[in-house]
Amino acid sequence: MSLLIKNIKELVGIDPENRRCLRGADMKQLNTLRNAYLYINEDIIAGFGTMDQLDRVKLDEKELIQIDAKDKMVFPSFCDSHTHLVYAGSREVEFVDKIRGLSYEEIAQRGGGILNSARLLHSTSENELYDAAWQRIEEIKRMGTGAVEIKSGYGLTVEDEFKMLRVIKRLKENSALTIRATFLGAHAFPEEYKDRPDDYVELIINEMIPRVVAEDLADFIDVFCDRGFFTIEQTEKILKAGKKHGLRAKIHANELDYSGGVQLGVKYDALSVDHLECTGDDEINSLIVSDTMPTLLPGAAFFLEMPFAPARKMIDAGLGIALATDFNPGSSPSGNMQLILSMGCIKYRMLPEEVINAATINSAYAMGVSDELGSIAVGKRANVFVTKPISSYAFVPYYYGHNNVDTIILNGKIQFKYTHSSFFKNFLKQ
Ligand code: NIG
Ligand code: FE
Fold first, then answer.
1. Which residue lies with its CA nearest to atom 5 of ligand 1?
2. Virtual CA dihedral for 406, 410, 415, 421, nearest 10 degrees?
3. pTM listed for this prediction
4. Which numeric CATH code is attached to 2-76+375-429?
5. How far apart, in whole angstroms, are the C-alpha atoms of residue 339 and residue 302?
6. Which tops the pLDDT comparison, 350 or 228?
C-alpha cells in the first residue's frame, strides 16, 4: 500500500542530510518545501518534492491512497522523549494543596507526591493500569505524538516496578506509536526504606536491574538525582550498575538544585539529562563536549511554578535542546506536545523553528530513535501529521491550547482524521 499527500501548503522538517540532532544556531534552521507532495510506500517515506515535480515520480498506482492537503501543512510527528504516562488514579488533591501554598517538596515529605502514586498503583490491577495508559496514548496520538518514552517509577517494589514495565511492554507491542521503556526504580525512596535508603539502592542494583535486563523490559535507566531524592553517590552506583548491564542512562537532574547531576550524566554518557531548571555555566560547559541531549520539560516548571530552565542561554552557547512533556500525575498532567511548543516559545524565548526541531528531531535523539524518526527524510519511518488549514508553521505554537492537527499517519497508515476543518478556513480568512 502507498500513500500520496498532495498540494501540501508547506512540508515542514525536511532533512536531506538526515542528521541525528541539531545544536546551537542550527536549531533555527527549519527546512521546508512549499506546495509539496509526500510519497509514502508501506511504512517508509519514499519521496517528497514540489508539486511540479510530481509527474516525474513513478508511483506504485495499485492501492494508492491520496490525501489532498490544500491549505494544510505536514509535520514529522512529535517525539515525546520523557513521560511517566503509566500511572494509577490522579493527584488533583495535591494540585489544590499547591494552590493553597504547599511546595512540591513539602507535599513529598508528607507522603504525597510519588509515594501517593505508588500506593494507588499498588492497589490497581495490571489490566486497569494498561487500559488507563492506552487511553492516554490514544489521546496524545490525536495531538500529533508519534513516539513516546515511558518510565516506570511508581512501583518502588520489585513486584510493582515489574507490573509497570510489563504494562509498557504490552503498550509497545500493541500501539502504533514507537515506544521506548525506561526503568526508573530510583524515582523515590519507599516509606519502609526512609531510614536506610542505601538498602533500597542495593535492592535496585542487585535485584531489579539484573531482572529488568534478563526479561528485556527496558531500553534505558533513569534516576531522580536531586535534593531530597537520590544523591550523587547513590545515582552513580545505580548508573554504573545499569551500564554494566547495557542500560544507557537518561536521568532526572538539576530540577530542584545545582546537584551535580548533569555532570554525572555526562560522565556516564547519558543519552539525555532532563529538567535542568538549575543550569549554570558549569553544566553548560560539561554538556557542550558531550553527546548528551539536554531535555527541557516546561510543563513541569509551569505546573509547579518553578523557575524555567535557561534555554536561550543554552542554545546560544551552542547546545542542542530537546523538549518533552514529562506527562505524569504530579508535576505535569498533560501530554500535549503542541502546548509544550507554546511554552517553549513563551517561557524559553525559543523561536518556532527551534521548538519544532526540539520536539521532533532532537527529542527523537533523546529517546534513541532519530535514525528512523523525527524528520522528513527518504528512508525514515512515515510518522507524520497533516495540520488543519493554518497560515504558517508558527501558527501551531501561537494558537496555544488548541489542537492544530487534522490527520494522523503512523507507520504509513492513516490512524485518525478529524472531520471538519471549515471552521479554521473561515477563521483564517477573517
Ligand atoms: O519528572 N521529578 C521527578 N519525577 C517526576 C514527577 C513525578 C511525580 O510527582 O509524580 C517529574 O517531574
Ligand atoms: Fe519526569
1. 331
2. 10
3. 0.96
4. 2.30.40.10
5. 11
6. 350
Q: For 318-375, write each residue's pLDDT tens digit.
A: 999 999 999 999 999 999 999 999 999 999 999 999 999 999 999 999 999 999 999 9
Task: Specify the residue with its C-alpha closest to ligand 1, atom 9.
Answer: 330
The answer to whether the CB of 98 is under 6 A from ligand 1 is no
CA atoms within 13 A on the CB side of 284: 18
**Owner of C-alpha cell 532526572:** 252
* List of residues 6+ apart from 336 with CB closer than 8 A: 140, 143, 325
Alpha-carbon 392 to chain mean position: 24
78-80 and 32-41 as β-strands: parallel, antiparallel, unpaired? unpaired
Between the CA of 299 and the centroid of ligand 2 the distance, in Å, is 10
Q: How far is the CA of 372 from the centre of ligand 2 (A)?
A: 24
Q: Where exactly are the structural domains of the chain?
A: 2-76+375-429, 78-366
Sign of CA dihedral 293, 294, 298, 300: positive
Q: Report the Cα 334 to chain-centroid distance in Å.
A: 12
Q: 124-146 in b/e burial notation, b at 16+ Cβ within 10 A?
A: beeeebbebbbebbeebbebbbb
Q: What is the CATH number of domain 78-366?
A: 3.20.20.140
Cell of 346: 513563551
State the closest ligand 1 atom to the C-alpha of 332, by its place in the atom list counted from 1.
12
- Give me Rg for the CA atoms of the chain: 21
Residue 147 CA to residue 410 CA, distance in Å, equals 9
Instruction: Note every long-range contact of 58-63, with CB atoms under 8 Å and residues 24 or more positions apart, other chains counting.
Output: 59/2, 59/4, 60/2, 63/1, 63/2
- What confidence score (pLDDT) does residue 108 get? 80
> Whose CA is closest to 81, among 37, 15, 170, 21?
21
- Is residue 162 a contact partner of residue 231, using CB atoms and an 8 Å limit? no
Task: Provide the grid cell at 246.
Answer: 547495557
Residue 226 Cα to ligand 2 middle (Å): 12
Written as nine digits, the cell of 339 is 502546548
Q: Provide the grid cell at 195.
A: 531510614
Ligand 1, residue 116: give the atom nearest the CA: 10
Do residues 71 and 9 touch, judged by C-beta distance below 8 A? Answer: yes
